[in-house]
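new request in #modeling-help
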Amino acid sequence: MRTLIRGGTVLSSTGAATADVLVDGETIAAVAAPGVFTEADTVLDATGRYVLPGGIDAHTHMEMPFGGTFSADTFETGTRAAAWGGTTTIIDFAVQAKGTSLLSTLDKWHEKAEGDCAIDYGFHMIVSDVNDGTLKEMESCVDSGVSSFKMFMAYPGVFYSTDGEILRAMHKATETGATIMMHAENGIAIDQLVARALAEGKGEPVQHGLTRPPELEGEATSRAITLAKVTGAPLYIVHLSAAQALAAVAQARDEGQNVFAETCPQYLYLSIEDLAKPDFEGAKYVASPPLREKHHQADLWRGLRTNDLSVVSTDHCPFCFKDQKELGRGDFSKIPNGMPGVEHRMDLLHQGVVAGEISLARWVEACSTTPARMFGLYPRKGVLAPGSDADIVIYDPAAEQTLSAATHHMAVDYSAYEGMTITGKVDTVLSRGRVVVDGGEYHGSAGHGRFLSRDLCQYLG
Ligand SMILES: [Zn+2]
């Protein structure tokens, strides 16, 4: 079965060229000058459109347990929504509960995802119980294709690790070549600010932002970088939201340390003003780190341009406004933390191209090529080249669309971008050679997506 994508502008992390893409089965057979190939079983006309490697969202939480509930998207609904938005790979997080082993956790997450995913998927491992057994198991995880471990400096009593525990895990990461991913917020200090606000009767959603000030993200980021320096571990800061944290990352990178960071569309486009929306509506925007003052956005766009921010992921972790966010009415500390976004990452970052914040090549790089390299999937993913998986997006850069819960495909009852009109829209999506979205219709199926066993980070020497 051969598919020819003809007449489009083929994008990569280094630029754009008019070319045709020939797909044979599940992989790309050739990227060639227009007209070189004429024979195929299916011909897709991409005239006037971009042809780019499918998006890789390296940070999602499908059906994740949190505070007695679960994030609203299952692997089935969440990966379908991702495909609609031009994302053809997700890397989700297996979550170690305290007192359980990493390998039993991994088994559990394989069970959840297997047979359900519309697109390919991998796992990171959340380490919340550092002990001799866990550290030993990190080796087996790496051997099983789970080569990155997330730790938390926030959420004391739940996911939180002490500096000593982080140090131990980092030593193991150095030994195995694995990457430590860090949620960098000073949770010990934050918990005191939260208790103080609640004691003063301040329970509304905006307090979530006010009790997690950017300085405490900056401080934790610096501390994580220091621990990584001492141990030699590669470090990847997740969902960086604050200028203070960016400055710490930039300095470490300037000094040659293996420190990387991602940001998310919500930090580029939304602000604490959204958290302050009246009538509990701010709860829709509760995620950690919190949405910041608007002036941070310009710093984050600059960080994307300078590569101090290398990746854009979503931290997709949707909770319905009704029933789930409701749990925190009157007490912001009980609002489930997380926002939906897996469907709109490619579109929102393309909007950054339209606005002149980033180049087309940088769009592809931050949303596909770099996440592939960062998490050991390149060149199978992240590039349109002979032999690569045929994960391909045909994108109409001129189409207009308005984001809304009424039209999105995520299993959540609100959109964080309700009413926002953007330029650019996905036309067609191929996952390993199969058309899964085309012209507003879904042709994918649960179970098409396969588990991706990942290598180590490909930015290390
Ligand atoms: Zn997350």
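bot summary: The chain has a mean pLDDT of 97.
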